[in-house]
Amino acid sequence: MKVAVDAMGGDYAPHEIIKGAVEAAREFGITVVFVGDEVAINLELSQYREGQPFSYEVVPTTQVITFHDHPSEVLRTRKDSSLYRAIQLVAENKCQAIVSAGNTGAQMAISLFVLGRIRGVLRPGLITAIPSISDGPFYFIDIGAVADCVPENILQFARMGQVYYRLVTGKETPTVGLLNIGEEAEKGSRQMIEAHKLLAARSPGFIGNIEPKEAFRHAADVVVSDGFTGNIFIKTMESTAETLFGMMKTALGSSIKGKVGGVLAHSNLRLVKEKLDYSQYGGVPMLGVKGISIVCHGRSDATAIYHAIRVARNVSDEGLVTKLEALWK
Amino acid sequence: MKVAVDAMGGDYAPHEIIKGAVEAAREFGITVVFVGDEVAINLELSQYREGQPFSYEVVPTTQVITFHDHPSEVLRTRKDSSLYRAIQLVAENKCQAIVSAGNTGAQMAISLFVLGRIRGVLRPGLITAIPSISDGPFYFIDIGAVADCVPENILQFARMGQVYYRLVTGKETPTVGLLNIGEEAEKGSRQMIEAHKLLAARSPGFIGNIEPKEAFRHAADVVVSDGFTGNIFIKTMESTAETLFGMMKTALGSSIKGKVGGVLAHSNLRLVKEKLDYSQYGGVPMLGVKGISIVCHGRSDATAIYHAIRVARNVSDEGLVTKLEALWK
């Protein structure tokens, strides 16, 4: 299996990207195809001549997409960028998946344009795993691909989310909940009331509206939302956690007893932080495009990239795209 | 000054409600007017015969509104409920404010119907204080009054939020940020792009879109949003914090070292929990109705009610309604 890696995308590119990809190549015995500036890539790769050998290729490109570039423009003007070329390798069947920590909007736009939509899919969505109080994470879709949704989009997210959840966990009929501001069917915005009706009528496994509190208790395997609300949800969750950890650090530092307690409790509290660490989940697949395009956080380090490639391998092995195509056959 | 207190509303009514109101009456030298079941109220009040005297009245009612009652129905069928009568006391100028921890939807509907809207206000909104990493809290509006907003609603929330922030802090021109999924003006849903344009053109102090992370850093004094997104934002924040504290408790209990550390760090971590504790902020005023209607959390204890009455007194003293009316003169 070959995975195309956008070597130039992300806050810590190319160093952390290549480091994580080399680890993945060694561990999983796959070929990583580094796409980007040839000189920069080879310089990084020179650090891995020692140690366990691994399989790789380099595809040189001359352009780079930054976080400031607009998705609509990159389609026209960045055809020789690392991201564009990496996605093309999947469209050309030269690679089975592409992994990038670069500009998410650009990756979605290029994936949609170059790979195309699965027949029947109105708009692809982004799904991610979120830790819950119970053992397993729940999955949330859409975390920001489609800011303006019609109810039909949300129904499709539910169906694609179920396929993904089944693929990851083996559960035959994952439950689906609609993120909303109240449990009753008539709660929420007009859009959510309509989405609720549609899900109730056409989504097997639909258990109704769920509020954030219930979501964190894993009240549903798959939680669906429009991409605007979903993006606010996930960003609020991340920044609340960050704020809390920051406040705790300050509070523990404010007294000797607190400092000692903090040191003793450190390894335990670290477990919580690790459980919440997005990098353990790597990247998230864009569901609904004809190919595997894994979107990583801009701040991805080597560990995140390693796990993103693990996700890419797993969903490719399990035939994600074929299974999604079957939904509309 | 007289504050009407819905003695029957809330998870811990009437006990905690009356306890908090008695404390407030003693501390602030105001009169609390308890509205609700006369027998139940007098039974509770019998506990406070000893100690510092305080001023109170009892207005007996025969009906109760539960959390399951629908706002539209209570308007027709619950005119002798504690909540309805308490709000009427404000409309009749017999009280200067009303405080309830009961059904929020019902309180908003009755306040709107009985007190009426301030001339010029399209839809009243709910504002709340949220702790930030910096010293002072920022204020967020709307946390759930208006699920379906047009951009003009959001502009009005911004203006009313600024008046409230000025009243609480004394800052002449509070800054305003629009909660959104990206900083650039063209980010977000169509609704938010339009709201951004309107705020940029007509809201002095508008600093642009802000993401949740920036909100917690107090990037703006007043953060505005539609009520659906705002309710998801605040509930996600609350439940992330609860989930984290739950996980930490479990993690600290998993080893001796963790347990000892947890005990030592307890008082420090408690500070963080207290900083996040909504009950310190009491209740939140409904902005845009012709009267002071303070909405409290259903789980409000005596401390929350005490602080809610403090808020009621302060905003009454500062002439909140007159200041809001001036916006549309």
UniProtKB/TrEMBL annotation, chains A, B:
Entries under Pfam families matching the protein: FA_synthesis
Annotated metabolic or biological route of this protein: Lipid metabolism; phospholipid metabolism
Subcellular location: Cytoplasm
Biological processes, Gene Ontology terms: fatty acid biosynthetic process; phospholipid biosynthetic process
InterPro entries (UniProt xref): FA_synthesis, Phospholipid_synth_PlsX-like
GO CC terms of this entry: cytoplasm
Catalytic activity: a fatty acyl-[ACP] + phosphate = an acyl phosphate + holo-[ACP]
Main localization category: cytoplasm
Keywords, ordered alphabetically: Acyltransferase, Cytoplasm, Lipid biosynthesis, Lipid metabolism, Phospholipid biosynthesis, Phospholipid metabolism, Transferase
EC number assigned by the record: 2.3.1.274
Single GO MF annotation: phosphate:acyl-[acyl carrier protein] acyltransferase activity
The keyword Cytoplasm is assigned to this record: yes
Function: Catalyzes the reversible formation of acyl-phosphate (acyl-PO(4)) from acyl-[acyl-carrier-protein] (acyl-ACP). This enzyme utilizes acyl-ACP as fatty acyl donor, but not acyl-CoA.
Protein family per UniProt: Belongs to the PlsX family.
Assembly, per entry: Homodimer. Probably interacts with PlsY.
HAMAP family: PlsX
Protein name as catalogued: Phosphate acyltransferase
Species: Candidatus Cryosericum odellii
Gene field: plsX
